[in-house]
Design goal:
Elements (H helix, E strand, L loop, with lengths): L1 E6 L5 H18 L5 E6 L4 E3 L5 E3 L2 E2 L8 E4 L7 H12 L2 H8 L6 E5 L1 H8 L7 E2 L6 H7 L4 E2 L5 E4 L2 E4 L5 H12 L2 H10 L24 H12 L7 H8 L3 H11 L4 H19 L4 H7 L5 H12 L3 H8 L3
Parallel strand pairs: 1-2, 1-6, 2-5, 6-7, 7-11, 8-9
Antiparallel strand pairs: 3-4, 10-11
Helix pairs in contact: 1-6, 1-7, 2-4, 6-7, 8-9
């Protein structure tokens, strides 16, 4: 099974070497060289990672021959502007990659983190369900609004397309690939040898509201600031739109473009983050915490907490006893 790993300068070293580690252990478990891999660049002789590590390239894209699996590995995220520049660079190689894909019979495509944006720029994701890192949702809303994106799952498989969230999600994608190509028993053994934990099924547990502030829409920023200061208050879309001096529909659209979610999804995220903080750093009764973060019904907050973080309030508090 020939695996081509397409990288750009600034690649996440752990994503590149980690994928190789998983494939290598799979070969050891099977006691065969089932997987064979090569590092592919766009046009360079070597790739330097974001950490300064240099990797010798096995071939450039123009020289790439037959492969069964194409893995597009993302570079370290350095802001939406830089990512869009990288996407535009990749887009210029779309005709060449298309020529490489033409003679192949249903190859498997894998992309994770910023690599999903690269795959979108290469035109490889149309009409398929995909996921990406949760903090890239606003980027995709602006630049690839036609794609069927769902940033909730850690990874998604749509036929022979695997997409994943942030860099270390590669572990679960590679295990899913091994399970599909070789079998569940081999995948479980690889998981055991590498001590890969059971997958967190949703990315929501990793979301940070602070990462959603880095945009230039001052009107949306004013609403964000207001909500943070009045988190225990009851908000209406009409009042928030009036604060931003725009219509309700425009506010929703601007929020999705700048933040990657609706105003009330953002408010819910802030309240859940604050709930988690109070559970960790205070001894408040949960009913008091609910009121503090703007929930009149503690049970409603408890349900949202479990859905978002993947564990109940009681389980979360029990976990704190071992920290």
């Amino acid at each position: 099974m020939k695996v081509a790993m397409l990288c750009q300068q600034g690649v996440m070293a752990s994503a590149l070497t980690g994928i190789i580690d998983v494939l290598n252990v799979a070969n050891q478990v099977m006691q065969t060289h089932f997987y064979q891999w090569q590092i592919v660049s766009l046009n360079e002789q070597s790739i330097v990672s974001s950490q300064g590590l240099s990797f010798k390239v096995d071939c450039q894209l123009k020289d790439l021959q037959y492969f069964d699996v194409l893995i597009i590995i993302g570079s370290q995220y350095q802001g939406d502007k830089r990512l869009w520049q990288e996407c535009q660079k990749l887009n210029s190689y779309a005709p060449l990659l298309s020529e490489k894909l033409k003679p192949l019979t249903s190859p498997t495509l894998i992309a994770g983190c910023c690599g999903v944006a690269y795959a979108a720029a290469l035109g490889l994701l149309d009409k398929q369900r995909i996921t990406a890192s949760w903090w890239l949702e606003a980027f995709f809303n602006r630049h690839f609004p036609h794609l069927e994106l769902d940033t909730s799952p850690i990874y998604l498989c749509d036929q022979k397309l695997y997409t994943a969230g942030a860099a270390h999600s590669y572990m679960y994608v590679m295990l899913a690939l091994i399970k599909q190509q070789v079998g569940a028993d081999t995948a479980k053994k690889v998981m055991s040898w590498l001590a890969i934990p059971e997958p967190q099924l949703r990315q929501t547990a990793f979301m940070m509201s602070s990462a959603l502030d880095a945009h230039q829409d001052s009107a949306v920023q004013s609403v964000q600031c207001h909500v943070k200061k009045q988190l225990s208050a009851q908000f209406t879309l009409k009042a928030l739109a009036e604060l931003a001096c725009m219509s309700e529909r425009t506010l929703i659209r601007r929020f999705k473009s700048s933040v990657g979610m609706t105003p009330f999804d953002y408010i819910r995220l802030l309240r859940l983050e604050r709930t988690k903080e109070l559970l960790v750093y205070s001894n408040k009764h949960f009913g008091d915490i609910a009121q503090n973060v703007g929930y009149q019904d503690p049970q409603a907050l408890a349900k949202q907490f479990k859905r978002h973080f993947g564990k109940s309030v009681a389980a979360f508090r029990e976990q704190l006893a071992y920290i």
